[in-house]
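in:
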């Protein structure tokens, strides 16, 4: 994986976009999922005219088309897809063509019910929805490979073909399958990982509760059991499930590479604070182009912050390279408890926030709003209401905006701050039978991210294996399970001059979820200069205070200073006077331990203090807290400043350069109106 070095230290050597781009797509990519199989011929013809009007240049086709393309086993009906591909090619619109394998057709689940997935409690998930397959099923895989090869061979030379879209949101509905097929594949995966059953017994700590295995044949997935399943078994099952989906992806991708080596391949990931089903970082090297789907949490009045986190995380998975937003929504979705329509300007700001954070393509689910099926109340680029609607006008406006932003393509985001994100820590930290059930890994991640967002500081979200040398500030929230080498990398960053922040419930266990003995936070004791003898998690509604006046909830611990200094102590509660936040100077930098969960205001004050120690300034100073500002850096030295005003007040910024959305020159004070967006090519 590659990560760009920080702006001030950049030698420019890492600036070149190094992932392939959809063939023939010029400028930024714009479009959405296109499902013409749901519509009659006249609508299909109109679709392409409307797409041209909106400036669409890339559409994802055939994602859920298996049953339409292969209505009976071995009998293909390519007619509608041939026509669609031709019509799009004639209009100069490129296609991200799907493998059509995201949902098996009814004839397949009927003739091979053994491909159906099974839940933890043994329920077989039937057909009639979507994604009703067990990814470990050799029978399903064989059929999926056959379909993939058929579609690849059919359209290999088609001029519309720009990108392969494998399956769809792999694991979205069935991240963990507990079927017999999964059991067999899990055993094989464990055999490769541990080689001998003795090693597995040691790693899983099976001396506990009479769990010792005599052979791999005795092992099952962590199916519903009378009480807590073995934690390492659960952790390994999460690792296996991610790898199993990746193995399936690779097999389909290899067919596509064999048939069309000139066409890049991707699949739409789901990087966000809501999804821990896969270790997305481990997918990075297998994706020619990284693509993500993100849906705004519409009940969250500041949902644009979680959106930004998801975008930065996707850029992290892409190793800093530009990526594509494969799906989001023009307005309401249909699957949240209350599906709020987006406010005027919100969809444009959402889209541009992704672009500001490295997306070179903005796409939607879906092009035309369905009139039947489970998603008919989900918004689309072309709504039920037709042309005379704000949604359609928004679609056209965004198309113009993205055309104007074409020069941004390939430029990169350079951050001096990093947050370490680790999926195995996420999985393991949230297992059962822990000091508190109220700890949410993504909740902690989002709290630290929000503090940086509110301070206007750009941040990279990087894996624990990333080279941290270029960063001046590194934050590791709840990095629960670490290997020695990962802990050493954080220590080296501090030695090398960074401010390194480690938060509570970090470094507690090794990669097998075995506690590091001698006091918490095991792996980081030396770096942080502290030793905790016992956790004191707080009860529900229990709140205490730190000596700076900030309230704190959820967590406390009895921490001894062994080389560190207390930065905040507890001002009340059972640990009154004990350290809550500490700092230890080391090498050129410092290591901070945050053994408490301060309120949002307390956390922002702390992060401000640490960022100042790191010498990091906001991208633009003095903005209203709901105004987002971010810069992309092009290889030729051009910089693009995005200013997105999510607030209800006008915001004046000092800039000089060209404002690309309006095509006007800016020299000095420029007003970005409430709810509006501006992108400056700076001079
Ligand atoms: C995604 C999925 C799309 C559509 C969308 C609705 O998870 O890939 O097919 O269902 O959600 O928001």
């Amino acid at each position: 994986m590659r990560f760009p070095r920080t702006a001030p230290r950049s030698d420019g050597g890492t600036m070149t976009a190094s992932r392939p781009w959809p063939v023939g797509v010029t400028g930024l990519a714009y479009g959405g999922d296109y499902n013409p199989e749901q519509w009659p011929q006249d609508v299909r013809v109109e679709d392409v005219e409307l797409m041209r009007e909106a400036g669409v240049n890339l559409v994802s086709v055939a994602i859920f088309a298996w049953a339409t393309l292969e209505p009976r086993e071995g009998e293909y009906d390519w007619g509608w897809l041939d026509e669609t591909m031709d019509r799009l090619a004639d209009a100069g619109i490129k296609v991200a063509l799907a493998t059509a394998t995201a949902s098996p057709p009814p004839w397949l689940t009927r003739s091979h019910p053994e491909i159906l997935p099974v839940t933890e409690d043994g329920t077989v998930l039937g057909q009639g929805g979507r994604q009703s397959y067990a990814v470990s099923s050799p029978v399903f895989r064989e059929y999926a490979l056959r379909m993939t090869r058929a579609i690849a061979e059919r359209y290999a030379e088609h001029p519309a073909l720009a990108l392969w879209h494998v399956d769809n949101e792999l694991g979205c509905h069935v991240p963990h399958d507990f079927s017999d097929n999964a059991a067999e594949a899990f055993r094989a995966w464990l055999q490769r990982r541990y080689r001998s059953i003795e090693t597995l017994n040691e790693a899983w700590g099976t001396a506990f509760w009479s769990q010792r295995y005599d052979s791999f044949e005795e092992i099952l997935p962590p199916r519903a059991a009378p009480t807590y399943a073995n934690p390492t078994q659960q952790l390994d099952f999460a690792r296996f499930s991610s790898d199993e989906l990746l193995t399936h992806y690779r097999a389909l991708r290899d067919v596509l590479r064999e048939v069309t080596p000139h066409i890049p391949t991707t699949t739409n990931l789901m990087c966000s604070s809501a999804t821990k089903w896969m270790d997305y970082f481990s997918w990075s090297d297998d994706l020619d182009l990284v693509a993500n789907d993100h849906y705004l949490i519409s009940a969250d009045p500041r949902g644009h912050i979680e959106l930004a986190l998801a975008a930065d995380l996707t850029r992290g998975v892409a190793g800093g390279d530009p990526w594509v937003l494969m799906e989001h929504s023009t307005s309401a979705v249909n699957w949240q408890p209350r599906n709020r329509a987006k406010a005027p300007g919100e969809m444009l700001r959402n889209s541009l926030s992704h672009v500001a954070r490295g997306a070179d393509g903005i796409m939607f689910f879906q092009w035309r709003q369905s009139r039947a099926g489970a998603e008919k109340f989900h918004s689309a680029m072309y709504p039920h209401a037709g042309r005379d609607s704000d949604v359609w006008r928004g679609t056209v406006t965004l198309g113009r905006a993205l055309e104007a932003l074409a020069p941004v393509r390939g430029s990169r985001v350079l951050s001096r701050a990093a947050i370490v994100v680790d999926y195995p820590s996420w999985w393991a930290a949230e297992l059962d039978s822990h000091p508190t059930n109220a700890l949410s890994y993504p909740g902690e991640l989002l709290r630290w991210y929000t503090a940086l967002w509110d301070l206007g500081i750009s941040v990279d979200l990087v894996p624990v294996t990333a080279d941290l040398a270029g960063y001046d500030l590194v934050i590791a929230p709840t990095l629960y399970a670490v290997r020695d080498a990962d802990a050493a990398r954080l220590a080296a960053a501090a030695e090398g001059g960074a401010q390194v922040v480690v938060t509570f419930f970090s470094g507690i266990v090794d990669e097998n979820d075995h506690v590091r003995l001698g006091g918490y936070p095991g792996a980081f004791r030396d770096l942080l200069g502290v030793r905790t003898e016992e956790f004191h998690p707080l009860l529900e509604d229990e709140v205490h205070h730190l000596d700076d006046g900030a309230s704190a909830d959820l967590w406390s611990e009895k921490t001894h200073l062994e080389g560190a200094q207390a930065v905040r102590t507890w001002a009340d509660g059972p640990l009154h006077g004990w350290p809550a936040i500490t700092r230890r100077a080391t090498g050129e930098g410092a290591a901070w331990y945050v053994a408490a969960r301060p309120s949002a205001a307390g956390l922002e004050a702390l992060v401000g203090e640490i960022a100042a120690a790191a010498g990091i300034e906001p991208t633009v100073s003095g903005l209203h807290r709901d105004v987002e500002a971010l810069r992309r850096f092009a290889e030729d030295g051009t910089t693009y400043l995005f200013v997105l005003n999510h607030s209800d007040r006008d915001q004046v910024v000092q800039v000089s350069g060209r404002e690309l959305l309006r095509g006007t020159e800016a020299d000095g004070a420029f007003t970005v109106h409430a709810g509006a967006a501006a992108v400056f090519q700076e001079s």
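note: Confidence is low (pLDDT under 50) at residues 1-16.
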